TrEMBL record:
The lineage of its organism: Bacteria, Pseudomonadati, Bacteroidota, Flavobacteriia, Flavobacteriales. SUPFAM superfamilies: DnaK suppressor protein DksA, alpha-hairpin domain. A zinc finger (dksA C4-type) spans 97-121. This is TraR/DksA family transcriptional regulator.
Amino acid sequence: MVEAPTRYSDADLAEFKEIILNKIQKAQADLDLIKSAYMNDLNNGTDDTSPTFKAFEEGSESMSKEANSQLAIRQEKFIRDLKNALFRVENKTYGVCRVTAKLISKERLKIVPHATMSIEAKNLQR
């Protein structure tokens, strides 16, 4: 009986590292975009519009700021999770389910590179 591997090969880890680095780069660019949109929300040039429209504008503006703030928080967490995945690649524990200790499928890791649980373990949580 052949025992299942306990970790991914160095070649696999190098491939995953590349995927993660690309995702971090894209996520950071998205975060910068969200933050710049937030900064632009502070002054959108409607100071000279009529007072009645201004009330609607301010309500919309604060909702937009809140939405952007939530997006930024989620994006920062995503980047942190990706950096943690990178750390696991470096110490060769990447791709090992933290619940079952089995390897997470390559397909799952390519789609969700910061995954720490296999589908099997995720389903057990429900």
